[in-house]
Target: Fibronectin type-III domain-containing protein 3A
Amino acid sequence: MADRTPPLESGQLLSPELPILASPPPSAMVNGEGPQQVILVQVNPGEAFTIRREDGQYQCITGPAQVPMMSPNGSVPPIYVPPGYVSQIIEENGVRRVLVLPQQPDFHPGGHSPLHHPPPPPHAHLPAFIPHPAMMPPPPHLYTGIAGGVGDLSSQYISQYHPAQFFSDQVSTDSLSQHGRPSFVHRDDRASKAHERLQKKVKERQGVGGGGGQVKDSPPPSPRKSCNSPPTVDIQNGIGGKALDAEHRHVVACSDKQTGKEKNGELKELDKETQALLALLSKITKPEVSDIQAREAVVNWSDPTRPESENTTTEEEPVLPEPLSYEISISITGKDGKYQSKYSGEGLSATLEGLRPATDYHVRVQAMCTSLLGSPSEAVSFTTLSCEPDPPGPPRKSSGTKNSLTLQWKAPCDNGSKIKNYNLQWDEGKGTGVFEQCYYGPQKQYRVTKLSPASRYSFRLAAKNDMGVSEFSEVVDLFTSCSVPLPPFPPELEMAGVTWLCLKWQRPSSSPKEDDIYYILEMEEEDSGYGFQPSYDGEELSFTVRNLHRSSKYKFRVAAYNSEGKSNPSQVVEFITKPDRPSCPCRPVIRGRVQPDSFKMAWEPPKENGGAEITKYVVELSEGVTGASWELVYSGSALEHVCGGLKPGCSYRTRVYCMSEGGQSPLSETLQVQTPAVPPGPCQPPRLVGKPKAREVQLRWGPPHIDGGSPVTCFSVEVIGPQSDESREVYQGPELDCTVGGLSPGRTYGFRLKAANKAGFGPLSERCEVTTGPGAPEQCKAPSTTCKSPSCVVVSWEAPPCNGAPVTEFRLEWGAAEGSMQVCYSGAGLSHEMKGLLPATNYFCRVQAVNVAGVGPYSEAVLCQTPCSVPAAVSNIYLLKESELQRYGSPVDADEDEEGGVIHPPLAFSPSTCLGICWDAPCDHGSEITSYLIDLGEKQPIVVGPVTKYVIQNLQPDTSYRIRIQAQNSLGTGAFSHTFKLKTKPLPPQPPRLECTAFSHQTLRLKWGDGPAKTAASDTLQSHLQMEDKNGRFISLYKGPCHTHKVQRLNESTSYSFRIQAFNEAGEGPFSSVYTFTTPRSPPAPLKAPKLERLDDNSCEVTWESLSHMKGDPISYSLQCMMGNTEFKQAYKGSATSFLVQNLQANSDYRFRVCAIRQCQDATELSGPYSPTVTLTPQRSETVQSGGAAGSGSRTGTESNRTRQSLTDEQCAFLLLMVFAVIAILIAFVIQYFVIK
Model:
């Protein structure tokens, strides 16, 4: 068993009211001279103490350490002692020390009696000094006074500390029952009265002696006067399932020189009752131990009993409440040794687990009641059984050679039976994981021989005693030794640098692979005088020696060693480091004048050559100012160079670097050079753009190939006449094209070009000759027109002057408007015939001539009008809607809105026997239309006047007809229109039968037809429901495809008249006969929950609200009562609003509800819904906890015994109704969306 519990876990926290000091306090505070009290807490090694810092974070302090803690009221902190111990104050050198000593018979130190239940704190705002039990760290802590020196008490005088819970005087009994032990409900009257007297005295002491009942507007008590009033504590000691994790011991040093005076009379009176209850708790018998195993045992005990002589008790003696809690603690250091808690609970039996085999244990039990802990019982001793040994540790290698290994091991715990033999197994060096026995005996070491050098062997060990064999230890791998390696070969140079050398060497060929060989690389610097010094010691076969000098010689050798010894060094080799690269040359400079195509540059050698001579210089040249690409232009040993072949007016950048045996130097600074510009070179001759025109040509050219190092800013174009060599400038500017005008058609001209930049004009280009083209024809005369028929016209024209080129084409434009003519003919003819024209229509035409030179201007436009003709064919025929058909039949007195409830007059034309058609009037072609012919196919054509709407009557219902129309005027009959297929509607439906399926005093649910309540979207039959109002008119209630409708907001006991009409796509059918339905009377409204007033244990008065008469009908009431879980029974029926219920059982719950009854004039009764249920709970004896306000015991006890009201039947019904309403709304939404729409 472990002596200590594990340290505090992260989930455990300290009380937020725990006072903490961030730094050690001044001496004034430690000596008690300041206003506050400082306690130094000593944490022993191996223990942990968790505190909360000022920033709110929690810190776990492990011992050994000293933690300063501050008492907030500046008084001596309360000392909590268990039963059997007393606290004694000793003053030494001005420092007061509190000692906790075991209580001896007839020994009362300092006149203080043992305080087992300390009074509440003097102020409610002062935090408790000792943390909450749920927040206390599990390990035990030793609190030692530091101010007066280290505590001089031995371990048997250190009291056992129990975690406590603190409450201020403002905490109610409800909050106390949540944190502390729950109050006992099943307690007899005698125990309740004794407990009430005890609590009353505690509250009186809070108000008088402890300063808890501070009067308003009175000054706060002095800290010195309230020193001996420790806070109220509820010592749980595991009650409620929380066991003590470890024992907490403390000795607190207090430096307060004055203590407050207590009223000894009240303290003695309180201690008298406490001692009586403690004496009863301490009379518990010793436990019994059974079923003892190697690592567990079962402990049984019984309740504390009172001697037979004390069975007759007075009312002043306390009575033990049930159930009690018990704490089991064990010790392995003797009956008077240190005990550790193993169980805490309300049972009378416990199983102790995790015990040590073959170990003597001592067990005792303590009884606990509320906040008191009785004395421990007599200890019972028992010894656990023996068992097999614990698994031993793995064997270790004590010595070894190339062919043997000597193993040693330690004996494990024998668990009560002496170890007789050890079983050592090995894998014989095979590495397969299969173990064989190599030794069996009582010795603790063994030498394994005949092994291979530099080999691995695996071993494991087990111990055996009379009880059995232990488990095997962990497998350990051990190796045999090897021989001293041979001298290795000399190291080789793998790579060299300026300040480093990378060397490698080989493993001695004679050494096996299993041997771990290490190498020592030694180095000697030339002319250093220190000899060989080690540079590397390890198992790698290569190493890079760094921090060397450039161009220096070094000597190296290597030696190998293993566990057997070190070899001789190898032969000495010499290696030289490389030279460093030189520094950059100086910045180059210009020598002489910069030419347009060359310049001369020079530079100085670098200041540092890196330990080697400069072999060559490299010059790089870059064109432009960005330096994007560099070109090598020189490589040699000279210090100057002429850069030629450059471009005029261009910017260049040049730089230099040098090279030696050490490498390439950095680049020098860049030198930028700008060459001067020259005039641009000759341009290419200008070229013709497109075909030359008769009086102008368009020329285009490109920039010269050589711009002279400066951008071209201007171009000059000269023209030379066809019969002279004189030239003139026709254009000068920056553009690359121009148009030369004022030329003669069919002539040859010469053109030359030159370019200019900031340096001047360049030479002229070669000559370019261009011949102008012929001109376009002249304007034609106006064309002439001749009408051959109403739809045909012949247009003719004459050829215009050709203007140097024959006319190859004529273009005729024709259109109904002068501004929207289009080309209708293109060819070489002088006439054209226009067909497909509209009669009696104005047209415009014009013509133009075209030759190779271009298109001539259009002639003047000519107007031409075609003669009249028969009408055109009717294009579209439409079917009149029912509304339009009704207005066509009765155009006077428009109907009112359908929603207004007015009945429409019957249709003059039924859509079942009539077809109303309309059509678009065709073009009359210059002569007015006089009539239309309507052809139905089988019947004689119908002749109508010049209208566009007509109703065809005397047709068959639900029959299709093919209809076509033609127009007539004074010139003849036009063509028929396209055939249109129209169909008459079937006859309208008859009205359905109307029924009332459900009714109430405000609603009527009506149903008609034989279909379901909701019809499919494909059903075209719909219904129109109407209701008669007060004025005798029928108003519309519903119009749609459904077969039911709910009429709401009606009056009770009232008759209503309804009628219904069916309609579909064929039309509206006739209305049904009038149906009359009457609403019933309304029941009374629900009442509020009745009010209960308990008169005594067997009677109560029930009252409820009253309702006014309903339309002259009186109201009576019915009261029902239910006891427990039985059915409701009527307790009263009458007109009164209260009732006295008697003969109630004291320990039963009663539920009451009431409803109103309407006494109708026809001797019938209408009962309203019942009110919510109200519950009457039985009276129980309340438990008043300490810490409540003074004088509020009875009121607080009543509030704490109130039971929570369960959900009433009306509330359950309302919840079910809401669920069904939500489901119904969702179903209605789905039907509306997917079925109706």
